[in-house]
Amino acid sequence: MTIHVEGLVAIAIFYLLILVVGIWAAWKNKHSGEAEGTNRSETIMVGGRDIGLFVGGFTMTATWVGGGYINGTAEYVYLPDYGLAWAQAPFGYALSLVVGGLFFAKPMRSRGYVTMLDPFQQIYGKRMGGLLFIPALMGEIFWSAAILSALGATLSVIVDINIKMSVVISALIAIFYTLVGGLYSVAYTDVVQLICIFIGLWISVPFALTNPAVSDITVTAVKQVYQSPWRGSIGKNDTWVWIDNFCLLMLGGIPWQVYFQRVLSASSATYAQVLSFLAAFGCLVMAVPSVLIGAIGASTDWNQTSYGAIAPKDRDQADMILPIVLQHLCPPFVSFFGLGAVSAAVMSSADSSILSASSMFARNIYQLAFRQSASDREIVWVMRITIFVFGGLATLMALVTGTVYGLWYLSSDLVYVIIFPQLISVLFVKGTNTYGSVAAYLFGMLLRIGGGEPYLRMPPFIYYPGWITEQRIHHMTGEMEDVVVQKFPFKTVSMLASFLGNVAVSYLAKYLFESGKISHKYDFLDAVVSKHSGEIMDKTTLVTRGNNIGLSEMAPVKPRLSVTLAAAFKRRDTLAAETVEEEDESSPDSSHHDE
Predict the structure, then answer these.
(1) Secondary structure percentages of the chain, helix, strand, coil, to 5
(2) What is the pTM of this model?
(3) Molecular function terms in GO for this entry (predicted)?
(4) Whole-angstrom distance, CA of residue 159 vs CA of residue 2
(5) HEC secondary structure over 323-391
(6) What are phi and psi of 51, to 5 degrees?
(7) Among 43, 186, 299, 523, fewest CB within 10 Å belongs to which?
């Protein structure tokens, strides 16, 4: 095994640069938020809520533009059966950011929440918040594991170093600067990483395009040269699958803590919206070199390159087309710069996910569900420990399981099917309650898992209309096997069923308890009758007694006069800006006070 010294040096320089920026950001902002009396734990989670347009735009873009995004886009453009028509991530995620900015950023930021799970716990209670934490955590951990796994494969292609070593070193660097500086370190390193990716990939494209082995990509887009045209097409039978996947990216890209962490760290609700739109534009711009590299891969006579006569798609290496093009079609110094850029991209996504998972655990599980009297110092330590634990878990999965992509597909589907409809309910639908939320959770999970997951060899037990059986080579064993393929848009249908289930069961429970059809003593979730119980953390009655968060059974306190919001879900600086009228109109649980 040959180790390319230049490649190692290039990667070492990139990693060192990112580490230095991460530590500098932590040092620069170590006293941030102290003047306003903000808790240190909150500063780690949402960075003192003073992140401006420049850093904010970069960090929001870098959240999506990671290793999976640039490698995956190139892979789909390159694959003969798919092509550009199936490279949905750039447009899907860009639209996801636009929809998030238009409808979700403003209510979440103006109410001053600290994590995505806050509104769920506020309206559905602590236990339901804990249940919703499970798919959110799985999504973040499996996402980190999938991109770390991609990084290991990428590095081993070009530098010929041990995959495990490269994954462990990358993960350790990301964990270290996240531990030291929290969101500030993550945000500032994102700026560096995004610039590196942009320069690294754009430097490589002209060299690859002008390589003598590469045909004109405008010709190969529409004509078959070495493989079917890279423009791609959507077959009549695949239309619903395409729509289902597109909705999954566009709507399922919203309910992620990595996204809301950026929204909630913006200095105002309007800034949060602008950041989302900037990032949408950034996602499209950053996808261009990936699309071109995929097209170059599809237009190359591999026999004329150092790669060999057999094309990557025939060697089952289509997922690594981007590093392969960098290595075999560009001069060495360019390919190493490009590789450093790719590895930087991966770290930019891994650090965000690890910080998001630990933020949700420390605040919504540890503090609000178990230890409401926990000191700020204690929460900070819980966060540090969980950053290390979740980072370690993601690294372990990247090294050990071969099904990490399958786990990521399934968990991202569960985020779409379970968390997205509940987020709509909790922000925009008045009167939904914990009974509806539990029913929606079960509906969504049952309908999605019932559809099966071929990648995990999980057979379906619900056969949706239009299903077919196909023979495929299993990615792990290399054996041919029969796989059930669902042609029905069952993920989006599951999401809609989950949403309607929440609304229907909530109103049914409300009617049955309030009309006396079912005795009040059976309201065991305290969701309808005992609205001001210890389980539902209603922001108008949640007040601080010393360090303990207790509940007052008095009439609702006017938000501006209460310490409530500062103690539980809001920050002091949002109180002055909000009028009581706005609060009454915008709060989804205002129906609780009116009844």
Answers:
(1) 70, 5, 25
(2) 0.82
(3) choline transmembrane transporter activity; symporter activity
(4) 8
(5) HHHHHHHCCHHHHHHHHHHHHHHHHHHHHHHHHHHHHHHHHHHHHHHHCCCCCHHHHHHHHHHHHHHHH
(6) -80, 125
(7) 523
Question: Among 458, 456, 486, which Cα is nearest to 470's?
Answer: 486
What is the DSSP annotation of 499-549?
HHHHHHHHHHHHHHHHTTSS-GGG-TT-SSS-TTSSSS--TTTEEEETTEE
Residue ranges of the alpha helices (H) in 83-237? 89-99, 105-110, 118-124, 126-159, 163-209, 217-220
- Residue 311: CB atoms within 10 Å: 22
Three-state SS annotation for 440-476: HHHHHHHHHHHCCEHHHCECCCCCCCCCEEEEEECCC
Q: Torsion angle, CA of 331/336/337/340, rounded to 10 degrees?
A: 160
Where residue 568 falls (left for φ over 0; alpha for ψ -120 to 50; beta otherwise) is alpha
Residue type, position 248, single letter: L
Higher pLDDT, 492 or 149: 492
User: In whole angstroms, how far apart are CA 358 and each of 199, 355, 381, 417, 515?
Assistant: 32, 5, 11, 23, 42
Q: Are 40 and 192 contacting, i.e. CB atoms less than 8 angstroms apart?
A: no
| Residue 484 backbone phi and psi in degrees, to 5 | -80, 125
Contact predicate 391/427, CB 8 Å: no
Q: Over the stretch 182-200, which tens digit does the pLDDT of each residue have?
A: 878 888 888 888 888 888 8
Q: Which residues does residue 266 pair with via DSSP β-bridges, in sequence order?
A: 51
Q: Where does residue 304 rank: exposed (0-12), middle (13-18), buried (19+ CB within 10 A)?
A: middle
The Cα–Cα gap between 289 and 295 comes to: 10
Q: Which residues of 332-369 are buried (b: 16+ CB within 10 A; e: fewer)?
A: eebbbbbbbbbbbbbbbbbbbbbbbbbbbbbbbbbbbb
Write b or e for each residue in 558-583: b if 16 or more Cβ atoms lie within 10 A of its Cβ, otherwise e: ebeebebbbbbbbbeebbeebeeeeb
Question: How far is Cα 257 from Cα 108, in angstroms, rounded to an integer?
Answer: 12
Residue 421 and residue 444 in contact, taking contact as beta carbons nearer than 8 Å: yes
pLDDT higher than threshold 60 for residue 595: no
Q: What CA–CA distance (Å, rounded) separates 47 from 26?
A: 10
What type of residue sits at position 577?
A
CB 284 within 8 Å of CB 296: no
- Which residue has better confidence, 15 or 572? 15
CB 202 within 8 A of CB 31: no
Q: In whole angstroms, give the CA distance from residue 507 to residue 372.
A: 31
Whole-number Å distance between alpha carbons of 317 and 417 = 31
What is the residue-averaged pLDDT of the chain? 80
